[in-house]
Input
Amino acid sequence: MAHQFGGPWTEKKLAVLSKYLRAYMQILKERPFHVAYIDAFAGTGRVESGSPDLSPSDLFDDLSRDDLIGYFDGSARIALTSDPPFQSFIFIERNPSRAEELRSLRDEFPDKASAIRIECGNANDKLRELCAKNWNRHRAVLFLDPYGMQVNWATIEAIAETRAIDLMVLFPSGVAVNRMLPDDFTSIPQAWKDALNRLFGTDEWADRFYGYSSQSDLFNASGELTKQARIQDIAAYYVERMTTVFPAGGVVEEPLALCTPKGRVLYHLCFATANPRAAATACKIVRDIFGKES
Ligand SMILES: C[S@@+](CC[C@H](N)C(=O)[O-])C[C@H]1O[C@@H](n2cnc3c(N)ncnc32)[C@H](O)[C@@H]1O
Output
């Protein structure tokens, strides 16, 4: 069974991925590295229209079903059909039945069957194991495509430390983070604060996103902290956080906003390379692709 999620923004996200994979392998095909595609939220490899399997914890319930339609090849299939080809494919998926479906890709792509590795488990755990290996002779593109807040900052740090991986990550700016930041700071539940700390790797987001408005100074003696950040400020802060761990010049400053047909921002697609030598080239390619898609 295909995996059902997404909408027009999904098509855009996958178009960007597809273009980057081709451009990346054009450059890497002549180089003496073993080059892998890693997909840590791999799904099933296929995406159908509709979203019946999304729970409120994945998305919030005020998004109508009309916002959530689409029909696409998923990221795993896009990577398997990309040309020039990758030498190996690592698909990580937490859901056992989706992982089982990924295994059937070996039958569909028999020439690549021995190059496909499927890991059923939590992306953060699996990636930290993978990133801790010796990357001297290896390079990879890593796609992180979670529904929401699943990518821990510790994982981003581990990726940056490889000095070998190019990372494309879907940041849930509108679909989750913005909704976890109510106007009044004191009304944020501790569990949400903990989730935001895990996502950003710090609690400093509170100082960034909240401040004392001039109105609360005038009329409110207690001086309530109120929300100052817009969705684009939230995404900009995540990009800024990435620049603290990735090499200089290795982070694309302007992430790509992914919106519903009515223009509501759901996600920002962010890019960084851990490879200092590739920083300028990789970021230029991604800026060009983002520019054409925005
Ligand atoms: C948006 S879908 C990915 C779609 C896929 N990139 C594609 O284009 O077909 C997110 C997937 O991540 C899986 N998932 C959710 N949390 C996870 C986690 N912590 N570790 C690994 N997979 C996870 C879900 O089961 C789901 O299949």
